[in-house]
Amino acid sequence: MDLTRTxxxxxxxxxxxxxxxxxxxxxxxxxxxxGRIGQPGQVRIDWYDTEAAAKTARFDxxxxxxxxxxx
Length: 71
Hints:
q64v53_bacfr protein fold
């Protein structure tokens, strides 16, 4: 899932990427990457016991980012 936020008047050109991936031991990862568009971003991986928990976390982050202007 890719989100972007741009505002030329404030020189804001940001991206936020989220992906859910299975782990080797039955756990699930929410992989997040964020940064300036056109540049390599920072990466964070959060582990969850179930796929449903990872999807809930992704949805919560999506709502938080949409309130901050990401589309």
